[in-house]
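Late entry, evening session. Most of the bench is empty. Finally got around to the prediction I had been postponing all week. Sequence below, unchanged from the version circulated by S.P.
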Amino acid sequence: MKVLKVLFGIIVVLAIIIIVGGLFLPKTYSVNRTVVINAPDSVIYKNVADFKEFYKWNPWAKMEPTAKTTFSGTPQQPGHIYEWKGKEMGAGEMKILKVEPNKQVDIDLFFREPFESHADTKFDIAPDGSGNKVTWTMSGDQNLISKWMCVFMGGMDKMIGKDFESGLASLKEKSEKGN
C-alpha cells in the first residue's frame, strides 16, 4: 500500500509539472526561411500556387514519393487543394486561402495524422536586385503536447527549418531553369 501511495504521489507531481510548466511554454510558433531566386516572379508564383508544380520541389514529397496525393480546384486560386496520405508523412491537406498574383500565396496547412493541427503557411515574393526574394513562413498555435514536444525536439525551427531550406533550394533550382 505504501508503494502505491508513493507511485501515486510521483504521478501527481509529474502531472502538475507538465500542466503548470506548459503554461509557461510558448503558445505559438513561427518558422521562416528566405532565398533569392533569379527568376521572374510569375515563374516562382506558379511553382508555389499550382500544387502540381509545388509537389515537384516539395521536400516532404521527396521523402516519401509513394504517398498517395490528390489535387483539386483551380491552380493559383483560392480553394486549390493538395492532399496527401503516406506511411511516413501521415495525412493532411494544403488549401489556398488567398493569393496576390506574383506576390503572395496564403495557405491553410491541415495535418490530420499522426496529430491533428492547423498552420498558416505563406509564401511572399518580393523584388530583390535582379531576382526575387522568397520567404516561406509557417506559424500556428501549440497545444500542451506540441509545446512539450518542441522542448524535447529543440523547437519547431529545428524540426522543420532544414526542410524549408531544402525546399527553397529545390524551388530555386526549378524556377531558375524556367519551369
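Two things to note before I forget:
The mean pLDDT is 85.
The beta strands are 28-37, 68-72, 81-86, 90-100, 104-113, 117-128, 131-141.
Will write this up properly tomorrow.
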